[in-house]
Amino acid sequence: MSRFPANRRLQRCAPAMMVPPILLCLAALTLYAIIANVWFSLNAMDLTQPWKTGFVGADNYVDAVTRHAFFKSSGIMLAFAGISPVIRLVLGTIVALALWQTIRGHHLFTTILVLPFGLTPVALALAWRLLLNPADGGLNQMLGLIALPKEPFEAAAMEGADCRQRIRYIALPMLKPLILVVILFRLIDLFRAFDTIWVITGGGPGNATETFNMLLYRIAFQNLNFGQSSALAILMPVLIIFCTQSFLKRLIRTMR
């Protein structure tokens, strides 16, 4: 009979005992990838010139940064990451407000949201995936509005404030931390964008739509220069941190 309590204790401890090996494996794989990437970036790893080997120091970084394509692809990426979140945030907010408040044209918005139900299951699943996107999904933004306390809006309505004034002076200031978080996560996600642009334009015409990720892909898997591509892979998070630190500072001030 004494074995049963021990078995129950073992069953309770089993999930916790399984976590450390998984974390160690993930940490080992992550550390290996980082160390290997740094090592490749400091060595000559151009498969089109296999006779050039050995330690080259910062040469790969210098060659990558001094490329004209580096500045052009970085500019395209910054433009894409700067314009897309604004458009999606505005459209998502409009949808959320149309469902949250009875405004002119809300029947049209409701009809548009019902249209996906007439699509095929795959297209419908993709539509719901966009609506439930944790970064900027319209449904999540609507839930953010619903979660706001009603008392300030009721008091403003009693004071004679119309719908537009309640949204501008009450809802938006209260949603400011959420909006900053949405923009921050969306920026990070857009900096990593590759598949959509690759499928639509392939970086063309020429390299007119070649983002930083696509430049990295081209140097690694088309030019077979893994040294420079590894240097670009290390420079990419540095660029992301540099571009998003202003949002982080503003978000921290807002949370305080």
Report on the architecture of this protein:
By secondary structure, the chain is an all-alpha fold. The protein has a single domain (62-255), classed as MetI-like fold, CATH 1.10.3720. 75% of the residues lie in helices and 0% in strands. The protein contains 11 helices and no strands. The protein has helices spanning 3-41, 59-65, 68-100, 106-114, 121-131, 138-146, 151-158, 163-191, 195-200, 212-222, 226-255. The radius of gyration is 25 Å and the shape is extended. It starts with a helix and ends with a helix.
Please give the structural blueprint.
Layout: H1 3-41, H2 59-65, H3 68-100, H4 106-114, H5 121-131, H6 138-146, H7 151-158, H8 163-191, H9 195-200, H10 212-222, H11 226-255
Oligomer: single chain
Determine the CATH superfamily: MetI-like
Number of strands: 0
Level-2 CATH architecture: Orthogonal Bundle
Strand content: under 5%
Average pLDDT, rounded to a whole number, is: 77
CATH topology: MetI-like fold
| Contiguous runs where pLDDT drops below 50 for at least 5 residues | none
The run of helices and strands is HHHHHHHHHHH
